[in-house]
Amino acid sequence: MKRVTLSICLILLIILPACAPAVKNPTPIDHPAFQATPQTPDSEYRIEVGDQLDVKFFYYPELNEQVTVRPDGRISLQLVREIMVAGLTPAELTEQLVKKYAVQIKKPEIAVLVRSFSGRSVFVDGEVNRPGMIPVIKPITLLQSIAQAGGVKETALTEETIVIRRGADHKPLVLSVNLKKAIDGTDPRQDIALRPFDIVFVPRSPITNVNVWIDQYIRKNIPVPFAFGWSFD
After folding, report:
1. Is 197 buried (19+), middle (13-18) or exposed (0-12) by CB count in 10 A?
2. CA distance 9 to 197
3. pLDDT digit of tens for each residue in the chain (233 aa)?
4. Are 160 and 203 within 8 A, CB to CB?
């Protein structure tokens, strides 16, 4: 019986079709929804659902509170049952609280601080070292989000990074970005500006998928050490 070496098996595996995800008809990079936005400070920040607020009273520290904006956009405080805060600036909320607490205490001096901005974030997933949510406090680009996610792994298919964005009609817009060209600087346009709620997905390279296949179906199923040039009859 002919002897079939492992090297032949590996060659056959490498020429198998790749399993990397494909994007059909992605939104072109020159689409207005993906055009870069000026890296300038936003207008005054407005409170959103999920934000964590510190409400501090200068002369009544016992009234200090740390609250999270509920899904209905409201918060509850001592002496003030409920107040709608989503959409207000910290200054506008401070003004409202001063008016409401003036009925309860004398000369209220109040400061509202936004401790966390969990309502404004992007999500980075796939072949990055630290996938997860990234708060968007100031303008952020694709490369900056990847850097905050710990950079890409060696297994990443950077030429086909995917960005998913909410469209004006609430339908998702999908863009295939060549992250490799953004990293090496050959096409700076690929480093697009991200918006809150964007999803960045870095897929796995085809050769990595083959390696996973080998690990799952050969190393785990054949009780023989995977060493140099072993063969079977």
Report:
1. middle
2. 44
3. 444 444 434 333 333 334 445 555 677 776 666 665 444 445 678 888 888 999 999 999 999 999 999 989 999 998 888 999 998 999 999 999 999 999 989 889 999 999 887 667 899 999 999 999 998 877 899 999 999 999 999 999 999 999 998 776 667 888 999 999 999 999 999 999 998 889 999 999 876 665 665 565 555 555 544 443 333 34
4. yes
Structure tokens at 192: 């697009």
How far is it, in rounded angstroms, from Cα 35 to Cα 26? 15
Residue closest to 80 by CA, chosen among 48, 50, 108, 58: 108
- Can you tell me the distance from the alpha carbon of 21 to that of 229, in angstroms, rounded to the nearest whole number? 32
Helix (H, G, I), strand (E, B) or coil at 26: coil
Q: Which domains does the chain have, with CATH numbers?
A: 25-39+119-210 (3.10.560.10), 52-116 (3.30.1950.10)
CA distance 197 to 55: 27
Residues 151, 200: contact at Cβ < 8 Å?
no
Closest by CA to 29, choosing from 160, 190, 153, 150, is 190
Q: pTM for this structure?
A: 0.56
